Write the C-alpha coordinates for this entry.
Amino acid sequence: MGTQEKMEREISIMDLFWDILFHWREIICFGVLAAVLIGGMKYVHDMKVYRAMQNVEVEQEKQLTAEEQEQLEDARLLMERIENYENYLNESALMQIDPYNKPIIELQYYVESNYTYNYTQDNRRDYTDNLMSLYCNYIKSGEMSNKLIEATKISISQADFSELCTVTQNGGTMAITFTWAEEEKLEEISEFIKTQLIQKEKEFQKVGSHELNLLRESQNTIADTVLAETKNTYANNISYINTQLTTLKNNMSEEQLILLDGKEKIEGAGDKDKIIKPGISKRYLLLGAVLGVFLVCAWVVCRMFFTARLQRAEEIRTLYNIRLLGEITLQCQRKRFLSAIDEKLLAIRNRRKKKMSVEQQIKVIATNIALSCKQQEIGQIYMTGSEYDNMDMGILDMLKRELAAQNIQVSEGGNIFYDASSLKQGTEIGNILFIEQTGKSIYDEISNELNLVKEQKNQMLGVVVLVS
Protein backbone atom coordinates (compact mmCIF):
# COMPACT_ATOMS: atom_id res chain seq x y z
CA MET A 1 0.00 0.00 0.00
CA GLY A 2 1.58 3.32 -1.09
CA THR A 3 1.85 6.48 0.93
CA GLN A 4 -0.28 9.55 0.44
CA GLU A 5 1.52 12.05 -1.82
CA LYS A 6 1.00 15.77 -1.57
CA MET A 7 -1.40 17.18 -4.15
CA GLU A 8 -2.14 20.64 -5.46
CA ARG A 9 -5.41 22.11 -4.22
CA GLU A 10 -8.07 23.37 -6.59
CA ILE A 11 -9.45 26.76 -5.55
CA SER A 12 -13.19 27.09 -6.00
CA ILE A 13 -14.14 30.52 -7.36
CA MET A 14 -17.53 30.28 -5.66
CA ASP A 15 -15.95 29.46 -2.29
CA LEU A 16 -13.54 32.34 -2.76
CA PHE A 17 -16.45 34.68 -3.51
CA TRP A 18 -18.36 33.67 -0.39
CA ASP A 19 -15.21 33.86 1.74
CA ILE A 20 -14.74 37.48 0.62
CA LEU A 21 -18.41 38.25 1.20
CA PHE A 22 -18.31 36.90 4.76
CA HIS A 23 -15.51 39.38 5.51
CA TRP A 24 -17.88 42.32 4.95
CA ARG A 25 -17.01 43.80 8.35
CA GLU A 26 -13.33 44.04 7.47
CA ILE A 27 -14.20 45.38 4.01
CA ILE A 28 -16.31 48.21 5.46
CA CYS A 29 -13.84 49.07 8.24
CA PHE A 30 -10.76 49.11 6.01
CA GLY A 31 -12.66 50.95 3.26
CA VAL A 32 -13.64 53.74 5.66
CA LEU A 33 -10.20 53.88 7.32
CA ALA A 34 -8.36 53.99 4.00
CA ALA A 35 -10.75 56.65 2.66
CA VAL A 36 -10.16 58.85 5.72
CA LEU A 37 -6.40 58.22 5.59
CA ILE A 38 -5.90 58.89 1.87
CA GLY A 39 -8.37 61.80 1.83
CA GLY A 40 -6.78 63.29 4.95
CA MET A 41 -3.24 62.97 3.58
CA LYS A 42 -4.31 64.70 0.35
CA TYR A 43 -6.01 67.50 2.29
CA VAL A 44 -2.96 68.06 4.53
CA HIS A 45 -0.67 68.14 1.47
CA ASP A 46 -2.92 70.62 -0.37
CA MET A 47 -3.15 72.85 2.70
CA LYS A 48 0.64 72.95 2.97
CA VAL A 49 0.94 73.95 -0.69
CA TYR A 50 -1.85 76.53 -0.29
CA ARG A 51 -0.22 78.14 2.74
CA ALA A 52 3.18 78.11 1.06
CA MET A 53 1.76 79.90 -1.99
CA GLN A 54 0.01 82.42 0.25
CA ASN A 55 3.27 83.11 2.05
CA VAL A 56 5.03 83.61 -1.29
CA GLU A 57 2.41 86.15 -2.34
CA VAL A 58 2.69 88.00 0.96
CA GLU A 59 6.47 88.15 0.68
CA GLN A 60 6.27 89.32 -2.90
CA GLU A 61 3.76 92.04 -2.02
CA LYS A 62 6.02 93.28 0.75
CA GLN A 63 8.74 93.88 -1.86
CA LEU A 64 6.50 96.21 -3.93
CA THR A 65 6.69 99.98 -3.64
CA ALA A 66 3.71 101.98 -2.41
CA GLU A 67 2.87 103.04 -5.97
CA GLU A 68 3.09 99.46 -7.26
CA GLN A 69 0.95 98.24 -4.39
CA GLU A 70 -1.68 100.89 -5.21
CA GLN A 71 -1.68 99.82 -8.87
CA LEU A 72 -2.15 96.19 -7.81
CA GLU A 73 -5.10 97.05 -5.54
CA ASP A 74 -6.72 99.15 -8.28
CA ALA A 75 -6.41 96.25 -10.74
CA ARG A 76 -7.92 93.82 -8.25
CA LEU A 77 -10.80 96.22 -7.63
CA LEU A 78 -11.48 96.47 -11.38
CA MET A 79 -11.40 92.67 -11.72
CA GLU A 80 -13.85 92.32 -8.82
CA ARG A 81 -16.24 94.83 -10.43
CA ILE A 82 -16.08 92.95 -13.75
CA GLU A 83 -16.78 89.66 -11.99
CA ASN A 84 -19.78 91.16 -10.15
CA TYR A 85 -21.26 92.56 -13.37
CA GLU A 86 -20.74 89.27 -15.24
CA ASN A 87 -22.22 87.23 -12.42
CA TYR A 88 -25.31 89.44 -12.37
CA LEU A 89 -25.77 89.20 -16.15
CA ASN A 90 -25.30 85.42 -16.09
CA GLU A 91 -27.24 84.55 -12.93
CA SER A 92 -30.05 87.10 -12.58
CA ALA A 93 -33.39 85.66 -13.69
CA LEU A 94 -34.48 89.05 -15.04
CA MET A 95 -31.37 89.36 -17.23
CA GLN A 96 -32.17 86.02 -18.89
CA ILE A 97 -35.47 87.33 -20.26
CA ASP A 98 -35.59 88.74 -23.80
CA PRO A 99 -36.43 92.44 -23.27
CA TYR A 100 -38.10 92.66 -26.70
CA ASN A 101 -40.27 89.62 -26.05
CA LYS A 102 -41.08 89.84 -22.33
CA PRO A 103 -44.05 87.74 -21.06
CA ILE A 104 -45.93 89.31 -18.14
CA ILE A 105 -49.05 88.73 -16.07
CA GLU A 106 -50.94 91.74 -14.68
CA LEU A 107 -53.42 91.79 -11.79
CA GLN A 108 -55.29 94.95 -10.83
CA TYR A 109 -57.13 95.13 -7.51
CA TYR A 110 -59.46 97.65 -5.89
CA VAL A 111 -60.07 97.90 -2.15
CA GLU A 112 -63.71 98.73 -1.41
CA SER A 113 -63.66 100.08 2.12
CA ASN A 114 -66.70 100.09 4.40
CA TYR A 115 -65.41 103.19 6.15
CA THR A 116 -68.07 105.81 6.98
CA TYR A 117 -67.75 109.28 8.42
CA ASN A 118 -70.29 110.55 10.96
CA TYR A 119 -70.03 114.18 12.03
CA THR A 120 -72.31 113.78 15.05
CA GLN A 121 -70.42 110.88 16.65
CA ASP A 122 -66.82 110.02 17.51
CA ASN A 123 -65.10 108.51 14.50
CA ARG A 124 -61.76 107.04 13.52
CA ARG A 125 -59.45 107.94 10.67
CA ASP A 126 -59.92 106.45 7.19
CA TYR A 127 -58.06 103.12 7.10
CA THR A 128 -58.20 102.60 3.31
CA ASP A 129 -54.64 103.82 2.69
CA ASN A 130 -53.37 101.59 5.48
CA LEU A 131 -55.04 98.58 3.89
CA MET A 132 -53.45 99.34 0.52
CA SER A 133 -50.02 99.64 2.15
CA LEU A 134 -50.52 96.30 3.91
CA TYR A 135 -51.39 94.53 0.66
CA CYS A 136 -48.49 96.11 -1.24
CA ASN A 137 -45.99 95.33 1.48
CA TYR A 138 -47.19 91.73 1.69
CA ILE A 139 -46.68 91.20 -2.05
CA LYS A 140 -43.11 92.50 -1.74
CA SER A 141 -42.37 90.59 1.48
CA GLY A 142 -40.15 87.59 1.95
CA GLU A 143 -43.13 85.58 3.20
CA MET A 144 -44.86 85.94 -0.17
CA SER A 145 -41.71 85.23 -2.19
CA ASN A 146 -40.84 82.12 -0.19
CA LYS A 147 -44.34 80.70 -0.50
CA LEU A 148 -44.50 81.41 -4.24
CA ILE A 149 -41.07 79.89 -4.93
CA GLU A 150 -41.95 76.75 -2.94
CA ALA A 151 -45.43 76.35 -4.43
CA THR A 152 -44.57 76.96 -8.09
CA LYS A 153 -41.08 75.40 -7.90
CA ILE A 154 -39.41 78.14 -9.93
CA SER A 155 -35.64 78.39 -9.51
CA ILE A 156 -35.19 81.94 -8.26
CA SER A 157 -33.94 83.70 -5.15
CA GLN A 158 -35.68 86.36 -3.10
CA ALA A 159 -33.53 88.95 -4.86
CA ASP A 160 -34.76 87.67 -8.24
CA PHE A 161 -38.36 87.84 -6.98
CA SER A 162 -37.98 91.54 -6.15
CA GLU A 163 -36.92 92.18 -9.76
CA LEU A 164 -39.53 89.98 -11.41
CA CYS A 165 -42.49 91.24 -9.37
CA THR A 166 -43.51 94.90 -9.23
CA VAL A 167 -46.37 96.46 -7.26
CA THR A 168 -47.75 99.96 -7.82
CA GLN A 169 -50.42 101.74 -5.79
CA ASN A 170 -52.68 104.57 -6.89
CA GLY A 171 -55.37 105.62 -4.41
CA GLY A 172 -57.54 102.60 -3.71
CA THR A 173 -56.17 100.51 -6.57
CA MET A 174 -53.14 98.22 -6.69
CA ALA A 175 -51.46 96.81 -9.81
CA ILE A 176 -49.26 93.64 -9.62
CA THR A 177 -47.00 92.75 -12.53
CA PHE A 178 -44.96 89.54 -12.70
CA THR A 179 -42.64 88.48 -15.53
CA TRP A 180 -41.29 85.00 -16.30
CA ALA A 181 -39.72 83.48 -19.40
CA GLU A 182 -42.15 80.52 -19.49
CA GLU A 183 -45.61 81.79 -20.37
CA GLU A 184 -47.40 78.64 -19.20
CA LYS A 185 -45.87 79.13 -15.74
CA LEU A 186 -47.36 82.63 -15.49
CA GLU A 187 -50.88 81.24 -15.12
CA GLU A 188 -49.81 79.11 -12.15
CA ILE A 189 -48.08 82.12 -10.57
CA SER A 190 -51.17 84.29 -11.11
CA GLU A 191 -53.47 81.72 -9.46
CA PHE A 192 -51.14 81.45 -6.48
CA ILE A 193 -51.01 85.24 -5.96
CA LYS A 194 -54.81 85.48 -6.12
CA THR A 195 -55.20 82.65 -3.60
CA GLN A 196 -52.78 84.29 -1.17
CA LEU A 197 -54.54 87.66 -1.40
CA ILE A 198 -57.92 86.04 -0.68
CA GLN A 199 -56.45 84.57 2.50
CA LYS A 200 -54.95 87.91 3.49
CA GLU A 201 -58.28 89.66 2.89
CA LYS A 202 -59.73 87.67 5.80
CA GLU A 203 -56.79 88.51 8.06
CA PHE A 204 -56.77 92.24 7.21
CA GLN A 205 -60.44 92.62 8.26
CA LYS A 206 -58.94 93.33 11.67
CA VAL A 207 -57.70 96.67 10.31
CA GLY A 208 -61.11 97.57 8.91
CA SER A 209 -64.06 96.08 7.13
CA HIS A 210 -63.44 95.95 3.38
CA GLU A 211 -63.56 93.90 0.19
CA LEU A 212 -60.64 93.22 -2.13
CA ASN A 213 -61.94 93.11 -5.70
CA LEU A 214 -60.02 91.85 -8.74
CA LEU A 215 -60.77 94.39 -11.48
CA ARG A 216 -58.60 93.06 -14.27
CA GLU A 217 -56.32 90.13 -15.08
CA SER A 218 -54.34 89.97 -18.30
CA GLN A 219 -51.38 88.10 -19.77
CA ASN A 220 -49.31 89.90 -22.36
CA THR A 221 -45.95 90.02 -24.15
CA ILE A 222 -44.30 93.42 -24.22
CA ALA A 223 -41.10 95.11 -25.35
CA ASP A 224 -39.32 96.42 -22.24
CA THR A 225 -36.96 99.17 -23.41
CA VAL A 226 -35.87 99.89 -19.84
CA LEU A 227 -34.69 96.27 -19.39
CA ALA A 228 -32.91 96.39 -22.76
CA GLU A 229 -31.15 99.61 -21.77
CA THR A 230 -30.16 98.11 -18.41
CA LYS A 231 -28.55 95.07 -20.08
CA ASN A 232 -26.69 97.34 -22.52
CA THR A 233 -25.47 99.48 -19.63
CA TYR A 234 -24.01 96.46 -17.81
CA ALA A 235 -22.34 95.21 -21.00
CA ASN A 236 -20.87 98.67 -21.67
CA ASN A 237 -19.63 98.89 -18.09
CA ILE A 238 -17.84 95.55 -18.44
CA SER A 239 -16.24 96.65 -21.73
CA TYR A 240 -15.16 100.00 -20.27
CA ILE A 241 -13.66 98.44 -17.11
CA ASN A 242 -11.86 95.82 -19.20
CA THR A 243 -10.25 98.63 -21.18
CA GLN A 244 -9.16 100.29 -17.94
CA LEU A 245 -7.79 96.99 -16.64
CA THR A 246 -5.83 96.32 -19.85
CA THR A 247 -4.28 99.79 -19.70
CA LEU A 248 -3.36 99.30 -16.07
CA LYS A 249 -1.82 95.88 -16.76
CA ASN A 250 0.33 97.28 -19.56
CA ASN A 251 2.03 99.57 -17.03
CA MET A 252 2.57 96.82 -14.44
CA SER A 253 5.74 94.85 -13.80
CA GLU A 254 6.04 91.08 -14.18
CA GLU A 255 5.97 90.65 -10.39
CA GLN A 256 2.71 92.63 -10.19
CA LEU A 257 1.14 90.53 -12.95
CA ILE A 258 2.16 87.32 -11.22
CA LEU A 259 0.51 88.50 -8.00
CA LEU A 260 -2.55 89.73 -9.89
CA ASP A 261 -3.17 86.58 -11.90
CA GLY A 262 -1.82 84.09 -9.36
CA LYS A 263 0.71 82.61 -11.86
CA GLU A 264 4.31 81.57 -11.52
CA LYS A 265 5.00 82.35 -15.17
CA ILE A 266 3.33 84.68 -17.65
CA GLU A 267 2.39 82.93 -20.85
CA GLY A 268 0.54 85.77 -22.55
CA ALA A 269 -3.14 86.53 -22.09
CA GLY A 270 -4.19 83.04 -21.01
CA ASP A 271 -6.43 81.63 -18.32
CA LYS A 272 -5.79 82.61 -14.73
CA ASP A 273 -4.44 80.02 -12.32
CA LYS A 274 -5.83 81.36 -9.07
CA ILE A 275 -4.92 80.04 -5.65
CA ILE A 276 -8.01 78.28 -4.33
CA LYS A 277 -8.34 77.13 -0.73
CA PRO A 278 -8.35 73.32 -0.81
CA GLY A 279 -11.10 71.13 0.59
CA ILE A 280 -11.73 67.45 1.14
CA SER A 281 -11.34 65.67 -2.20
CA LYS A 282 -14.18 63.25 -2.92
CA ARG A 283 -12.05 61.61 -5.58
CA TYR A 284 -9.32 60.73 -3.08
CA LEU A 285 -11.90 59.57 -0.55
CA LEU A 286 -13.28 57.20 -3.19
CA LEU A 287 -9.75 56.13 -4.16
CA GLY A 288 -8.95 55.37 -0.50
CA ALA A 289 -12.16 53.38 -0.06
CA VAL A 290 -11.43 51.33 -3.20
CA LEU A 291 -7.85 50.73 -2.02
CA GLY A 292 -9.05 49.59 1.42
CA VAL A 293 -11.58 47.18 -0.09
CA PHE A 294 -8.95 45.86 -2.52
CA LEU A 295 -6.44 45.21 0.29
CA VAL A 296 -8.98 43.20 2.29
CA CYS A 297 -10.01 41.17 -0.77
CA ALA A 298 -6.35 40.56 -1.66
CA TRP A 299 -5.66 39.43 1.89
CA VAL A 300 -8.60 36.98 1.81
CA VAL A 301 -7.49 35.59 -1.58
CA CYS A 302 -3.86 35.19 -0.47
CA ARG A 303 -4.93 33.53 2.76
CA MET A 304 -7.01 31.00 0.83
CA PHE A 305 -4.23 30.35 -1.71
CA PHE A 306 -1.44 29.95 0.81
CA THR A 307 -3.30 28.54 3.80
CA ALA A 308 -2.02 25.37 5.44
CA ARG A 309 -5.38 24.42 6.95
CA LEU A 310 -8.31 22.44 5.60
CA GLN A 311 -10.78 24.74 3.83
CA ARG A 312 -13.57 22.48 2.56
CA ALA A 313 -14.85 19.05 3.48
CA GLU A 314 -14.75 18.00 -0.20
CA GLU A 315 -10.95 18.32 -0.14
CA ILE A 316 -10.84 15.00 1.75
CA ARG A 317 -11.99 13.34 -1.48
CA THR A 318 -10.11 15.49 -4.00
CA LEU A 319 -6.75 15.72 -2.20
CA TYR A 320 -6.50 12.45 -0.31
CA ASN A 321 -8.85 10.15 -2.21
CA ILE A 322 -10.43 9.10 1.10
CA ARG A 323 -14.08 8.40 1.75
CA LEU A 324 -15.96 11.35 3.25
CA LEU A 325 -18.49 9.90 5.67
CA GLY A 326 -20.26 13.17 6.34
CA GLU A 327 -20.12 16.80 7.49
CA ILE A 328 -21.23 18.31 10.79
CA THR A 329 -21.92 22.04 10.60
CA LEU A 330 -20.93 23.68 13.86
CA GLN A 331 -23.08 26.51 15.26
CA CYS A 332 -21.20 29.70 16.05
CA GLN A 333 -21.55 30.25 19.80
CA ARG A 334 -20.15 33.79 19.84
CA LYS A 335 -22.58 36.48 18.68
CA ARG A 336 -20.80 39.01 16.50
CA PHE A 337 -21.87 42.56 15.68
CA LEU A 338 -24.76 42.47 13.18
CA SER A 339 -24.67 38.67 13.15
CA ALA A 340 -28.08 38.72 11.46
CA ILE A 341 -26.30 39.72 8.23
CA ASP A 342 -24.03 36.65 8.51
CA GLU A 343 -27.06 34.46 9.04
CA LYS A 344 -28.75 35.94 5.98
CA LEU A 345 -25.66 35.41 3.82
CA LEU A 346 -25.35 31.86 5.10
CA ALA A 347 -28.99 31.20 4.26
CA ILE A 348 -28.44 32.50 0.71
CA ARG A 349 -25.31 30.37 0.24
CA ASN A 350 -27.06 27.22 1.52
CA ARG A 351 -30.43 27.93 -0.14
CA ARG A 352 -30.19 24.72 -2.21
CA LYS A 353 -29.33 22.57 0.81
CA LYS A 354 -31.86 21.12 3.21
CA LYS A 355 -31.34 22.55 6.67
CA MET A 356 -30.59 19.93 9.33
CA SER A 357 -29.86 20.30 13.02
CA VAL A 358 -26.55 19.09 14.48
CA GLU A 359 -28.33 16.14 16.07
CA GLN A 360 -29.83 15.08 12.74
CA GLN A 361 -26.46 15.35 11.00
CA ILE A 362 -24.80 13.22 13.68
CA LYS A 363 -27.50 10.55 13.45
CA VAL A 364 -27.11 10.32 9.67
CA ILE A 365 -23.31 10.08 9.95
CA ALA A 366 -23.50 7.48 12.74
CA THR A 367 -25.88 5.40 10.65
CA ASN A 368 -23.54 5.67 7.64
CA ILE A 369 -20.58 4.53 9.75
CA ALA A 370 -22.59 1.68 11.33
CA LEU A 371 -23.71 0.37 7.93
CA SER A 372 -20.13 0.47 6.67
CA CYS A 373 -18.95 -1.43 9.76
CA LYS A 374 -21.72 -4.01 9.39
CA GLN A 375 -20.76 -4.67 5.79
CA GLN A 376 -17.16 -5.24 6.86
CA GLU A 377 -18.14 -7.11 10.07
CA ILE A 378 -16.46 -4.48 12.28
CA GLY A 379 -17.58 -4.11 15.89
CA GLN A 380 -14.97 -1.73 17.25
CA ILE A 381 -13.41 1.43 15.81
CA TYR A 382 -10.82 3.98 16.88
CA MET A 383 -11.61 7.71 16.54
CA THR A 384 -8.74 10.14 16.09
CA GLY A 385 -7.68 13.19 14.10
CA SER A 386 -4.86 15.64 13.56
CA GLU A 387 -6.53 18.19 15.91
CA TYR A 388 -8.69 15.80 17.89
CA ASP A 389 -7.77 17.22 21.31
CA ASN A 390 -8.82 20.75 20.23
CA MET A 391 -12.25 19.85 18.84
CA ASP A 392 -15.67 20.30 20.41
CA MET A 393 -15.93 17.45 22.89
CA GLY A 394 -19.70 17.84 23.06
CA ILE A 395 -20.03 17.01 19.34
CA LEU A 396 -17.63 14.07 19.67
CA ASP A 397 -19.52 12.68 22.68
CA MET A 398 -22.81 12.90 20.77
CA LEU A 399 -21.23 10.99 17.87
CA LYS A 400 -19.87 8.32 20.22
CA ARG A 401 -23.27 7.89 21.88
CA GLU A 402 -25.00 7.46 18.52
CA LEU A 403 -22.40 4.89 17.43
CA ALA A 404 -22.82 3.04 20.74
CA ALA A 405 -26.56 2.96 20.11
CA GLN A 406 -25.73 1.31 16.75
CA ASN A 407 -23.72 -1.39 18.67
CA ILE A 408 -20.35 0.06 17.61
CA GLN A 409 -17.71 0.15 20.34
CA VAL A 410 -15.69 3.38 20.13
CA SER A 411 -12.23 4.18 21.46
CA GLU A 412 -10.54 7.53 20.95
CA GLY A 413 -7.17 9.22 21.12
CA GLY A 414 -5.06 12.10 19.90
CA ASN A 415 -2.95 12.51 16.78
CA ILE A 416 -1.41 9.10 16.08
CA PHE A 417 1.58 10.74 14.37
CA TYR A 418 2.69 12.37 17.64
CA ASP A 419 0.99 10.28 20.33
CA ALA A 420 2.61 6.86 20.72
CA SER A 421 -0.17 5.43 22.89
CA SER A 422 -2.78 6.52 20.36
CA LEU A 423 -0.78 4.92 17.55
CA LYS A 424 -0.50 1.67 19.54
CA GLN A 425 -4.17 1.56 20.48
CA GLY A 426 -5.30 2.47 16.98
CA THR A 427 -3.08 -0.18 15.42
CA GLU A 428 -4.36 -2.81 17.85
CA ILE A 429 -7.98 -2.02 17.00
CA GLY A 430 -7.10 -1.73 13.31
CA ASN A 431 -10.24 0.19 12.23
CA ILE A 432 -9.68 3.93 12.29
CA LEU A 433 -12.15 6.77 11.82
CA PHE A 434 -10.67 10.21 11.32
CA ILE A 435 -12.35 13.39 12.62
CA GLU A 436 -11.06 16.61 11.04
CA GLN A 437 -12.22 20.21 11.16
CA THR A 438 -12.09 22.99 8.58
CA GLY A 439 -9.96 25.94 9.64
CA LYS A 440 -8.10 23.80 12.20
CA SER A 441 -6.79 20.60 10.63
CA ILE A 442 -3.51 21.08 8.76
CA TYR A 443 -3.02 19.48 5.33
CA ASP A 444 0.42 18.05 6.10
CA GLU A 445 -0.73 16.62 9.44
CA ILE A 446 -3.64 14.85 7.73
CA SER A 447 -1.22 13.44 5.14
CA ASN A 448 1.14 12.23 7.89
CA GLU A 449 -1.70 10.43 9.69
CA LEU A 450 -3.06 8.82 6.54
CA ASN A 451 0.40 7.67 5.45
CA LEU A 452 1.05 6.21 8.91
CA VAL A 453 -2.23 4.26 8.81
CA LYS A 454 -1.33 2.86 5.41
CA GLU A 455 2.15 1.92 6.57
CA GLN A 456 0.70 0.07 9.56
CA LYS A 457 -1.78 -1.61 7.18
CA ASN A 458 -4.76 -0.55 9.28
CA GLN A 459 -8.32 -0.33 8.01
CA MET A 460 -9.25 3.28 7.16
CA LEU A 461 -13.04 3.70 7.46
CA GLY A 462 -13.13 7.30 6.26
CA VAL A 463 -13.27 10.87 7.51
CA VAL A 464 -15.94 12.95 9.24
CA VAL A 465 -15.40 16.70 8.85
CA LEU A 466 -16.58 19.34 11.28
CA VAL A 467 -17.36 22.48 9.29
CA SER A 468 -16.78 25.66 11.31
In short: Residues 189 and 195 are 10 Å apart (CA to CA). DSSP finds 16 helices and nine strands in the chain. Confidence is low (pLDDT under 50) at residues 263-273. The longest helix spans residues 24-62.
